[in-house]
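FORM 7B: Structural annotation worksheet

SECTION A. Query
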Amino acid sequence: MKHDDEQDRLPSARPQSLMFSFLGIYVLGRDTAVYSGSVIDVFARLGVSEEAVRSTLTRMVKRNLLARHRHGKKVYFGLTPHATSVLDDGRRQVWERGAVNRDWDGTWTLVGFSLPGSERSTRHDLRSQLVWAGFGLLQGGLWIAPGTKDVEATLAPLGLGDNVTVLQARALKPTESADLVRKAFDADQIAERYRAFLDRWDTAHPLPSAADDLARQLFLHTDWLQLVRQDPRLPAEHLPADWPGIRAETVFHTLAHRYQPSAATLAASVLDELALSP
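SECTION B. Predicted structure
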């Protein structure tokens, strides 16, 4: 268990990660844009400077995640279709998929690739995308993930074509699925990340130094989304009965519902929104 001062320490999430949480909760699905000044006011509650907020908004515009909308002398920021797709995926990971894979059907998605030495940067990007999509390295050039994965959508931006082979398979004797989990994934590291989440949030009064429940809500969602995005959702049958992800998921849902009413009231009092035409 952490000491009280460590439990109270605000998370060190990147402004962009917090921005994704904010947009996912308060902009996604609303057909509105938000005034930059009111976004700055929200992020001041998180200890994020005005300069960092403006830099993050500008960067997200350049990445086609946000679009500027001018109304009088004010600049509002709304979601692009690309951002909507990214945020929808995050929403599904948080609210629909769950942290524990209890319905695995015994299949694996396999990805093999062979790239020349000159493609070192592409190889790095490919590996990063595979890890992000829940794959683990089984052996040289062969990556696996439990269940069916939409590899085409994940790897399409890299344009690798024939350099990548994608298959779906089942383990056959003498290979055991439990051995594949052990070889390709670091379950201890995944469990440790869940325990760190529990150290921060599974307390009577999480983050007492946070400004209010709006700040706690955004920190909580950011912590949780980063956690589940790093979790390959290994089959429950190959995890310990006391897997910390089970408890962590319960804690997240409990706190998310606890913070929502007061956070929404605070956000409504701060945010300046512009309705966008359909």
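SECTION C. Observations
The first strand starts at residue 32 and ends at 35. Strands lie at 32-35, 66-71, 74-79, 107-113, 136-139, 142-146, 164-170, 273-275.

SECTION D. Sign-off
Analyst initials: ____
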